[in-house]
Design goal:
By secondary structure, the chain is α/β, with parallel strands linked by helices. Helices cover about 35% and strands about 20% of the residues. Helix 2 packs parallel to helix 3.
């Protein structure tokens, strides 16, 4: 679908405010306006906003900063959804959940007859140009990433290479195939393509957070759920034999409050990296 005709655009709706897009989409109703703070809006987050049927998206940050050619903004605008971009961080406190707000064709955000913020309304062509510029600069970003990685290893080598202490698991991974499932883009078609493999080899299904819901959506049951437990449903949590909470070596344990609220038994796995990294590490160290 083409981008909206900005000259005729005036979008009104109820505001839903959330700093974490993946949490906000769970409570968005069709036609509401999502107010987010998401620099470099990614494809998965954008597709979840489109699927929720939002009337518009107000982003406090730049939806595409130029660091890399992220595919989120183009999906929002091509879906015919108005994107008010780079409104500024103060908008997250200025707009309250449930406020009736309005976006006009000049990129102004209104509430009760007062302008409370201003941003940019990017077109499809503008976003495509920004993505092309980001592609041209991706080499610099990769070089920065490599330098940061080497600095991290140099600084945190003892934490990174300390012996791994595996949590006790009900699921026996020794000698089994393991399939790590993350709810990224195209996960439905990926799981459909893997059906014959799953039937034949019966791998242990290790879900990273919302990957557990992805499995349930296609009629499969997770054996292990691992991660922060900040983007997985209680329904999925109660279906898995093993719940493994990813805890960082410095003690950070985001999402623990969710597990405590649900009153479920879980084990902790202390390891550095993303939850996807730690899921693969768990499978390897447990003998899969």
């Amino acid at each position: 679908m083409a981008s909206p005709d900005l000259a005729a655009t005036r979008v009104r709706g109820v505001a839903r405010v959330g700093r974490r897009t993946k949490d906000l989409v769970k409570r968005l109703a069709p036609g509401e306006i999502a107010v987010i703070d998401h620099v470099d809006l990614d494809r998965v987050a954008a597709e979840s906003l489109v699927a929720a049927g939002v009337g518009a998206v107000v982003n406090a940050s730049q939806s595409i900063s130029g660091r890399y050619p992220n595919g989120g903004p183009i999906r929002v605008v091509r879906a015919g959804i108005l994107l008010l971009d780079a409104v500024g961080p103060e908008i997250m406190d200025r707009v309250r959940d449930g406020d009736a707000i309005e976006i006009d064709a000049r990129g102004r955000l209104w509430r009760a007859g007062e302008v409370i913020g201003r941003g940019h309304l990017p077109t499809v062509d503008e976003i495509l140009d920004q993505m092309e510029e980001a592609r041209a600069a991706i080499g610099d970003e990769l070089r920065r990433f490599a330098r940061n990685t080497l600095e991290f290893v140099d600084r945190e080598a003892s934490l990174t290479f300390d012996p791994i202490v595996l949590p006790p698991l009900r699921t026996d991974l020794r000698g089994r195939h393991a399939l790590v499932v993350v709810r990224g883009h195209d996960y439905t078609s990926d799981l459909a393509a893997l059906r014959p493999y799953i039937r034949e080899f019966r791998p242990a299904l290790i879900a990273v957070d919302g990957g557990a819901d992805a499995l349930l959506d296609v009629g499969l049951e997770p054996d292990i759920i691992i991660g922060d437990f900040d983007s997985v449903s209680e329904r999925a949590v109660r279906r898995a034999p093993d719940l493994v909470h990813h805890v960082h070596p410095d003690g950070r344990a985001p999402g623990r409050e969710n597990l405590l609220d649900w009153g479920v038994h879980y084990e902790e796995f202390v390891a550095e990296g993303t939850s996807e990294d730690v899921a693969m590490l768990l499978a390897y160290e447990a003998g899969a």
